[in-house]
Amino acid sequence: MGAFIIAVDGPAAAGKGTLARRLATELHLAHLDTGALYRATARDVLAAGLDPADAAGAAELAGKLDPASLADPGLRGEEIGRVASIVSVHPAVRTALLDYQRNFAYHPPNEAKGAVLDGRDIGTVICPEATVKLFVTASLEARAGRRLRELETSGAPADAAAVLADLQARDERDSKRSAAPLKVATDAVLLDTSGLDADEAFGAAMSIVRARTRSFGSSQA
Length: 221
Known about the structure:
Strand content: 5-15%
CATH topology: Rossmann fold
Structural class: alpha/beta
Mean pLDDT: 92
Low-confidence stretches: none
Largest sheet: 5 strands, parallel
CATH superfamily: P-loop containing nucleotide triphosphate hydrolases
Radius of gyration: 17 Å
Helix content: 40-55%
Number of helices: 9
Distance between the termini: 14 Å
Order of helices and strands: EHEHHHHEHEHHEH
Oligomer: single chain
């Protein structure tokens, strides 16, 4: 059967990151938030004073990323998220980060028996042979509400209209970019979390994983 990989894709603020981390913990798998790679690239682009539209400059920085820097708490900032959405559109940046993601998936660290990766193109580009593919989504209004609560909890400035507009812009860039656009893999299971809390979403995801892995004859789940 090869590597045991769970691909979790979806738009911003759909809850895929939280879900992917819980799945990895429950199943004793390694976890990679691939969005952190683009956020780290965005951080370095800002630090270098580059224009996020500079594809070559951003790709050069992406190729030099230190994996240890992915734990930087500053990566969750709104400005970095905005710039990450811009630099992630560049095909050269995505190419620069491709090998790292695939190597993590097929050769997970710490002798883990598999990996959970969350992002925008895991099931379609990074790991098209993933054992289980989830596409986690939610209505724009639900996602904006979640992002607004995150900002309020962190004490960051929170403007409902601005959050909604930002998510709309990110959705537009993610779905219409030429390289690895956000889309549902043909063999992915759609999980709409609009009306679910975190525990309900996790329960639904685990049911999908168990059903899908049973069909593959896996004992992982």
